[in-house]
Every structure is written in structure tokens, then in C-alpha cells.
């Protein structure tokens, strides 16, 4: 979780916490630990492993299997891109925490927008079905009533 710039300067910078948060984001979307001795030496840290996967356009290969099937791919990819920006080795090129927060809100809101559109479509379909059922039931009642009057 430690900002690599800390090892050079022995000082935490304004954006050192952003690097650490990037590692947390990657842990969340991959389900992996920050350091693993099961990976090769050059990919031992999750940050390095993840950045390499991003460079090779294999981010979907490292997504946690527990969320892969049920996730919104665009949303997870957006979080992965944000995490990559947070993990930039050059602290000056990382977003600040306010920008990270706003980006996460934007990603969440875009999902809510899509969900709301789906909900509206469902409501409209359900309304149509209910209306059709009502019209069909009313027609049946009218037909039944009309036929019973004829019988009398």
C-alpha cells in the first residue's frame, strides 16, 4: 500500500494516500491481496500485476470471478481505469482524492441512470400488460353479460 515515491524520498506526499487507495480499489475488483508470493517476482505486488494486465488489455482476465458474471463491464472497467490512474508511479500525475471521489460518484450515477432507464422500461411494460389485461377482462365481462341477456 505504500507509495513508491516514499521509498525514494522517505516523505509522504499529498497524493500518497491516492496510491494506497488505488491498491484498495484493485483488491476490490480482483479479489487478490496486495502482495502474493504465488505470483512471479516481477508481479509479486498487486499494483504491478494489475498495471501489466491493463497495459496488455487483459483487465477482464483479472477481475474477481465472484463478480465477473454479475458485474456491469463498463462500470468495472471505469473503476479499473481510475485505479490505474491512482497507481501512477509519478505522484504528480495521480488524481487527488477529491477527483477520485467525484469519479467514483460519476461511475455510480451512470449505473443508477442505466438502472433507472431499465426500471422505467419495466414500469411501462407492466403498465401495458396491466392495461391489456384490464381491457381483455372488460371485454370478456361485456361479452358474458351480453350473452346472458340474450339467454334470458
Task: Kindly list the characteristics that best describe this protein.
Kinase-like_dom_sf, WAK-like, kinase, 152 residues, Wall-associated receptor kinase-like 9, Transferase(Phosphotransferase), domain 1, mainly alpha, ATP-binding
Explain what this protein looks like in three dimensions:
The chain is an all-alpha fold. It has a single domain, classed as Transferase(Phosphotransferase) domain 1 (Transferase(Phosphotransferase), domain 1, Orthogonal Bundle). It has seven helices and no strands. It has helices spanning 4-9, 16-30, 46-55, 59-62, 65-68, 73-86, 97-151. Helix 2 (16-30) packs antiparallel against helix 6 and helix 6 runs antiparallel to helix 7. The termini are far apart. The model is unreliable at 139-152 (pLDDT under 50). One of its GO terms (biological process) is cell surface receptor signaling pathway. Residues 1-107 form the Protein kinase domain. InterPro entries: Kinase-like_dom_sf, Prot_kinase_dom, Ser-Thr/Tyr_kinase_cat_dom, WAK-like. One of its GO terms (cellular component) is plasma membrane.
Outline of the structure:
The chain is an all-alpha fold. The chain has helices spanning 4-9, 16-30, 46-55, 59-62, 65-68, 73-86, 97-151. The chain has a single domain (4-122), classed as Transferase(Phosphotransferase), domain 1 (Orthogonal Bundle), CATH 1.10.510.
The count of β-strands is 0
Give average pLDDT, whole number: 77
**N-to-C CA distance:** 87 Å
Most strands sheet:
none
Q: Tell me what portion of residues adopts beta-strand conformation.
A: under 5%
Share of helix, binned: over 70%
CATH topology: Transferase(Phosphotransferase), domain 1
- The CATH superfamily is identified as Transferase(Phosphotransferase) domain 1
Structure annotation, total helices: 7
Q: What's the number of structural domains?
A: 1
Amino acid at each position: 500500500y505504500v507509495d513508491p515515491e516514499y521509498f525514494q524520498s522517505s516523505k509522504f506526499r499529498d497524493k500518497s494516500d491516492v496510491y494506497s487507495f488505488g491498491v484498495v480499489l484493485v483488491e476490490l475488483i480482483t479479489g487478490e491481496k496486495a502482495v502474493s508470493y504465488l505470483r512471479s517476482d516481477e508481479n509479486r505486488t498487486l499494483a504491478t500485476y494489475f498495471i501489466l494486465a491493463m497495459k496488455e488489455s487483459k483487465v477482464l482476465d483479472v477481475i474477481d470471478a465472484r463478480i465477473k458474471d454479475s458485474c456491469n463491464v463498463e462500470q468495472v472497467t471505469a473503476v479499473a481505469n481510475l485505479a490505474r490512474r491512482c497507481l501512477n508511479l509519478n505522484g504528480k500525475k495521480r488524481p487527488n482524492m477529491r477527483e477520485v471521489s467525484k469519479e467514483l460518484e460519476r461511475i455510480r450515477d451512470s449505473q443508477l441512470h442505466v438502472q433507472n432507464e431499465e426500471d422505467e422500461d419495466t414500469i411501462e411494460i407492466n403498465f401495458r400488460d396491466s392495461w391489456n389485461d384490464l381491457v381483455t377482462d372488460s371485454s370478456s365481462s361485456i361479452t358474458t353479460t351480453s350473452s346472458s341477456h340474450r339467454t334470458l
